[in-house]
Design a protein that fits this description.
This protein has about 200 residues and is an alpha+beta fold. Helices cover about 30% and strands about 20% of the residues. The chain contains six helices and seven strands. The strands form two sheets. A five-stranded mixed β-sheet has the order 2-1-5-3-4, sandwiched between helices. The chain has a two-stranded antiparallel ribbon with strand order 6-7. A hairpin with a 2-residue loop joins β3 (about 50-55) and β4. α2 (about 80-95) runs antiparallel to α3 (about 100-110). The chain is globular and about 60 Å long. About 35% of the residues are buried. The mean pLDDT is about 95. The protein binds iron/sulfur cluster and FE2/S2 (inorganic) cluster. Iron/sulfur cluster binds near residues 125, 128, 131, 155 and 180.
Length: about 200
Amino acid sequence: MSEIVLQIDGREVKAAESMTILDAARSAGIPIPTLCSHEKLEAYGACRICVVETETFGRKRLVAACVYPAERNMVVMTRSERVDRTRRVILEEMLAHAPDSVELHKLAEEYGANKDRFEKEPSFCILCGLCVRYCAEIKKKDAIGFVDRGAKREISFIAEIASRECWNCKECFPLCPTSALQAAYVLVEALAFPGAESKP
Ligand code: SF4
Ligand code: FES
């Protein structure tokens, strides 16, 4: 696999041609925040918090670092004014949906996001898809999925599968950046299979 050289935050970084900007930055110890990315899962590109500014042949653009490939001679800025402004707005929108998320609060501090900019519409889920994808891609169980579309889109446990598979797994719980997943599980457990916690 051939090696390329690009510039990230003024540093020369060597990367394999197949790497994303996120992979290349991480290999050089340069941090980029992520919410929907996980090293064991396929890239998803949903949350956009990993946005960075790139410059190629004098053309600047914002791209999602977790899905965008690193390119030869590309110039990447992980903390330009435009990047920080974009991350700030993304966080402000997410905090309207998940106002109690500790992870979002930490990022909001870092980027100076106004936690109360948008009217609260708590769904507690930011639709990062980590739980859904982890269950499908790693556990191959599909015990949780997305239902509905647009503003009504949400995650939902499939009770028949969850009652069999989830009670002694719960590996997806720590992945959730909000409290939505545990709340959804408690609900489905109470409604569909009470007492599963006490299974042998
Ligand atoms: S429940 Fe949590 S992990 Fe699942 S999609 Fe929503 S925020 Fe992401
Ligand atoms: S981490 Fe890149 S889009 Fe979510």
